[in-house]
Structure formats: structure tokens, C-alpha cells
Amino acid sequence: MPDRDTVIAALDAVIDPKSGRGLAAAGLVQGLTVAADGVRAGFVIEVPAGDTALYAPVRDAAEAALKAIPGMARVSVVLTAEAAPATRRGRTASLSPQAVEQTRAKAPVPTDRPAHVRRVLAIASGKGGVGKSTVAVNLAAALAARGLSVGVLDADVYGPSLPTMLGVSGKPEYRDGLMEPHLAHGLRLMSVGLLTGADDAMVWRGPMASQALTQMLTQTRWGTADRPLDVLVVDLPPGTGDVQLTLIQKTPLDGAVIVSTPQEVALADARRAHTLFRKVEVPTLGLIENMSGDIFGQGGAEAEAGRLGVPFLGDLPLDAALREAGDAGVPLVVSDPDGAAARRFAVVAARVADVLGV
User: Which of 316, 321, 257 shows the shortest CA–CA distance to 292?
Assistant: First the structure.
């Protein structure tokens, strides 16, 4: 079975168009993982901002080189862009301490929204497993049902689920240096799940996850000058870590919706999420209580919203149809627009749209 040395040799047969060296020799192979059984391999190509169009064919050639290895069944090559600081690759060794400090990478400052995007809405949860992605995709569909142009960014880079929930697959096309989002049920979607294999594990440290988010956020054609996107819904991973901070630093957020189940163990993490947004001056538009009912209790999120002084946007009962629709790749708001769940999402969407001014 292929091993790491075989993979590196195959990648060195692909030439870096700038240095003329093989990809591995040129230092462009980041985060290489080769499964113990030798049937899966993946890595990230990091290039300077503005070079994605140049390296898109290189990424494709690297994929082809790995797939040509006998026994290799699944391959994942992600192309991402980062402006490399001057301190990379050991070039600060001869600099004074003052010069090193001056060239050290600074924390990014908030930039403008992605091109042709009017509003950016984060869907967050402190705790995993509360149905945040289900809420995100159905809320996005409910906003689209109001006649808005809506995009969805799956920022849960370690567990991307929106391609499954929207029934899409396949890598996005590059055109004029930008990725074209997939279109599904009236929504424009970009996800790491579209850039990698369905079964691939993202064995990435925080900076690599942040770079992947930055690429999807800034290098996707969300809208155009004549047809701008009204709302970009960002499905965040659970917690308050690198991906959340990167999103906050990279683009102004117009608001956040926090999803929680009614029990205290989830509400405690929802409080932490609200605290994060409050500290960075992002308004919490409200709390949604998901899976409300006999199993998890009821009313916890509404009471918590009162304690935090933020709006309560509504409750969503535990509903098998909601889960089944997600597994089938069609949001319940789309497949059953007149059903009880769709009506609840319509109410939430109306409240969110009113606050966002769209």
C-alpha cells in the first residue's frame, strides 16, 4: 500500500509554477495526512493572496498525481490563500529583536463585507449537538422564501454537514480567480465539505482551519454588482474558538443568532457564546430554543434570553420530520412550506429580516 514517501514523491512530480521545484520541495504541501492503510491522503496548498487562479490547475494536477498511485482510493487537496508574513521560513534569524517584532504577523483587523454582500448573519451555539446546522439551513431557506437572495457559508470546517442537508456534492468551479458557490433550493452554498472527500477527517490545527474559512469567505462569488446577496448566513462550529474569532476579524457581522436546547448544560454554553459576541460588539439578535418538548424540557432558552436581555426568537419542537428532511437533502421549509415547522421558521425569519433591515 502507498506510504508517506510514495505520496511525497508523487507530489514532487507536480511542479510549482513559481519556483520550478516539486510541490513538497517547494514547501507548498501543508498538513499532509496519509491514512495508515494507505488508501487516503490529503493536504493543503497555501499560496499568497491573489495566486489562487495560478495554482488552481496545480491543485488539480496534485489530485490527479495522488489518484494515480496504485491503491489510493480517496484524495483531498485544498487550495487556500494566505499573505505570508516576513517571519516565515526562518528569514528572521539575522534580524534584530526590534525588526522581528515589527515583522511579526499582526492580528487581522475587520475588513469590509465580502464583495456584493449586504448583510452577514452568524448562527452560533456554545455546545455541539443542539441542531444549529439544521436551524441555519432552514432559517436561510425561510429568508429566501421571503424573496431575499441568500447564501450559506458552512464554517464548521471540522464537521461540515450542509452539503448533505442541501443535497449537493462536487467541487466548486473556479472562474476569474473566484469559486462559484453551489446552488440548491434557492440558496448559494460554500463548504469545506465541497472541497474535500465526504469521509475525510480535517486533521488541521487552528490556523489552517482559519485559512480555510478565510478562503471560502473572501474567494467565493457570493453575489454580483447587479445581483448582490441580501444575507450571507454563516453556520459556525460549536464553541468560541479560532473560527469564530477569524470570522469576527475578517468581516463585520450584522448580528448573531444563538441556538440552544432547553437544558442548563446547553444554556451555559449559549451564555458563553453571547459573551463572546458582546465583547466584540456583535449584536445578539436573539436565542432560538431547538428540540423543545418533553425530552429536553421547555422554556429554558426563553428564560435565558430574558436574563441576558436579548430577544427570544421562538421555539422549535423536537420533530423527526426536520431530521429526515435534512438527511434527504431538502430543508423542511422547502419540502413542506405549509407545515408547522416551516411556519415557525417563517416567524423567526421575519423577525431577523426586520432587525437586519432586509
Answer: 316
> Which has the higher per-residue pLDDT, 97 or 62?
62
| Structural contact between residues 46 and 85, judged by C-beta atoms closer than 8 angstroms | no
The predicted model gives 238-260 an average pLDDT of 82
d(CA 135, CA 140): 8
Strands across the sheet containing 312-317 = 182-184, 187-191, 150-154, 229-235, 117-124, 255-260, 284-292, 312-317
Q: Classify residue 68 by burial, with Cβ atoms within 10 Å: 0-12, 13-18, 19+.
A: exposed
Write down the mean pLDDT value for the chain: 82
Q: Cβ contacts of residue 84 below 8 Å, gap of 6+?
A: 46, 48
Cα(219)–Cα(49) distance, integer angstroms = 10
pTM of this prediction? 0.69
Angle at 260 between CA 254 and CA 265, to 5 degrees: 130
Residues 6+ apart with CB under 8 A from 287: 257, 258, 259, 260, 270, 301, 302, 304, 305, 308, 310, 311, 312, 313
The CA distance from 15 to 20, in Å, is 6
